[in-house]
Amino acid sequence: MTQPTTSPTLDTLFKRILARQPDALALVDPLNKQRITGQPRKRLTYAQADRAIAAIAAHFIESGLPANSVIAVQLPGTVEFALTVLAAHRVGLVVAPLPLLWRQAELTAALNRTAARAIVSSSRVDGVSYADFAMNAAAEAFSIRHVCGFGNDLPEGMASLDQAILQDSRTSRSVIQDGRKAALISFDVTSGGLRPVPRAHFSLIAGGLAMSLESDLAQGATIMSAFAPMSFAGLCASLVAWLLSGGTLVLHHPFDDEVLETQINDHSCDTLIAPAPLALRLDELDLSERMPSLHNVIGLWRAPEQVASSPSWTAKRASLTDVYLFGEAGLFGARRIDMDGSPALIKPGPHGAPRDVPSATIAGDILLTSKGTLGLRGPMVPVAAYAPPPSHSDASPPHDYVDTEYAARIDRATGGISITAPPSGMMAVGGYRFLAHDLQEWSRRLGQGALLTALPDRLSGYRLAGRAQDNARARDALAELGLNPLMAEAFRDRTNASLT
């Protein structure tokens, strides 16, 4: 009997590259990793990465994690993040990435909602003890049976994955690598609150293809990824794009412009994947002259309603592809091809690449819903995760698309879709989305005379800003509310200024 063919997983893609070029450079840490995590910087070939992946995978098996169980991961954009995700997939685990800006309440809710069996973290990130976050959240999640991490001075009860790599255990188990199996559970924040969004490997790969095909990402590319990896788009913009190209992934912990420029030039990176506002700012600073090796820039828009009003792209040696992100629901890309560098026209219907070839790979469909909002469907879009709960009074069939809740309309002159506003009542600071109601509640808890608000920001969509009579007391109050210390920095002290 002929065995049914299976679609590839991320580990399948990695092993294909490993077989072809084991000694090629695979992964490079951020230049300032020592400052970010207190750990030395790593440069790994595919063979070296494979040995580390196998050792971490062995640790997961020896810790008693059965196949198909969920492992939560909260890590910065370093080599360890890529090794952990691939190790988990190698032994049939489902990865649940947790954004760095999440507060403990959200961590605990995510762990409980997914029945996660383990959590992986880092000892410190930017001076903040993420190991303590992981331990505290695990104590409130009854399903957690194993807590492990990277870095020095891990708390008692947290296993060291650095030591696991050094021990180089060969324990393994047989797992069928099938792209239809669950690979990821990411988390979206919608008007209904926190929403787990499961995806199979093929769905992740479809998201990476939507970016790489539209941007014409070259095989063997040296990719600089400067986008936080703990989301569907973040994984597509780093791990998946790298595995599809079979080149080198250079990681950058957002953002340090000087470090980013140095890394790009030191490694002769030909591709930059970064938040689009950051890419446009680099273009204003003469990107082509300062970083001459770059010829392909992929800019990700967390606030896709801002694309139409964005500055023109002027770099002559590098192309820009705008990637529109809609939370965890999905994404699509459009390369700027007009001579004036303006954003490409987005029309309803299939989107794929190359757009001028009738038999182009179809990444999905863009549509305008009856509510005047943008809808998405296709292999990357997890329709079931966003489906409304069944109603006995509603006999209409379920939608085959996800309503992103972004307001949109058809431009009569061009026939293109204009995205006009984000979902009502939602705020986003970097990769952290939350309800505007939550911001009002946090501000109310700070006491009389205190102000906490979200201001528009070119790089992250919004940034938190705060003012109080006693900034230190305000930071303590936010910490008591369970907010991440990095968010409490809205009340950091500055000379001659109380508004930050």
Give the helices and strands, then pairings.
Blueprint: H1 10-20, E1 25-28, H2 33-37, E2 43-45, H3 46-62, E3 70-73, H4 79-90, E4 94-97, H5 104-114, E5 118-122, H6 130-139, E6 146-150, E7 159-160, H7 161-167, E8 182-190, E9 193-200, H8 201-215, E10 222-225, H9 232-245, E11 248-251, H10 257-266, E12 271-275, H11 276-284, H12 287-290, E13 296-301, E14 319-326, E15 330-335, E16 349-353, E17 361-368, E18 373-377, H13 383-386, E19 402-410, E20 417-421, E21 426-429, E22 432-435, H14 436-445, E23 451-457, E24 461-467, H15 471-480, H16 485-488
Parallel strand pairs: 1-11, 3-4, 3-5, 5-6, 6-7, 10-11, 10-12, 12-13, 13-14
Antiparallel strand pairs: 1-2, 8-9, 14-15, 16-17, 17-18, 18-19, 19-20, 21-22, 23-24
Helix pairs in contact: 3-4, 3-7, 5-6, 8-9
Any idea what the CATH architecture of the largest domain is? Answer: 3-Layer(aba) Sandwich
Strand content: 25-35%
Give the tally of structural domains: 2
Q: Assign the structural class, choosing from mainly alpha, mainly beta, alpha/beta, alpha+beta, or little secondary structure.
A: alpha/beta
- Radius of gyration, whole Å: 22 Å
Query: Tally of extended strands?
Result: 24
Q: Please bin the fraction of helical residues.
A: 25-40%
Mean pLDDT score: 87
CATH topology of the largest domain: Rossmann fold
Strands side by side in the biggest sheet: 2-1-11-10-12-13-14-15
Main sheet makeup = 8 strands, mixed
Low-confidence stretches: 495-500
User: How many distinct helices?
Assistant: 16
Fourth-tier CATH superfamily name of the largest domain: ANL, N-terminal domain
Q: For the terminal residues, how far apart are their CA atoms?
A: 68 Å
Kindly report the oligomeric state of this protein: single chain
Tell me the name of the CATH class of the largest domain. Answer: Alpha Beta
Shape: globular
